[in-house]
Amino acid sequence: GESVGLHLPTLSVQEGDNSIINCAYSNSASDYFIWYKQESGKGPQFIIDIRSNMDKRQGQRVTVLLNKTVKHLSLQIAATQPGDSAVYFCAEITDSWGKLQFGAGTQVVVTP
Amino acid sequence: GAGVSQSPSNKVTEKGKDVELRCDPISGHTALYWYRQRLGQGLEFLIYFQGNSAPDKSGLPSDRFSAERTGESVSTLTIQRTQQEDSAVYLCASGRQGSYNEQFFGPGTRLTVL
Lengths: 112, 114
Known about the structure:
Chain A is mostly beta strands. Chain A has strands at 4-6, 10-14, 19-25, 32-38, 45-51, 56-58, 62-67, 72-77, 86-93, 100-102, 106-111. Helices cover 0% and strands 54% of the residues of chain A. The termini of chain A are far apart. Chain B is mostly beta strands. In chain B, strands 2, 4, 5, 6, 9, 10 and 11 form a 7-stranded mixed β-sheet that branches. Classes of the chains: A mainly beta, B mainly beta.
């Protein structure tokens, strides 16, 4: 079936550098794409989303890019901090109820 | 303000026993979702509630799984005759009507079936 998946299972980044987390999706009909951050022992936390009719959206220190031509989604984190260490999931809303389909996740490790 | 809460935070049970997991959504959120997260994996959708009706039960893995919701408040997920493969973190999320793109997750219940 159609699914959302991630390219890199683990990303190690030095504190202060920029991070880029990638995600491939296959469901062309999805209306929203969302990035979640999950710290150990906690539930996922909404970071940022983007509608399918947009290419780019910026938040505080984060930018999400959507390339519908190649069905690719990315999350950029500027000036990565130790508190950014977590697992990051991309997800897509697959129906009008808000049902989320998640990728497998990328572990981001911030090193001093 | 209060977020989504779940109880218990941890549950250890023996194979074959029934378990009930509880979710208290954010007040006023009409939508409620249950997901399952196996160790080191992403979240799998289980069931969705709009109010107290469940228009989408497509993710429930077997008839041992059921869920109900009282009005627009608490929901319980029941797993009967638990199996070891049921071991996972069960996460609940809630959302406002018209803002389903932003779902708020609880901390989850870690279920271990021995």
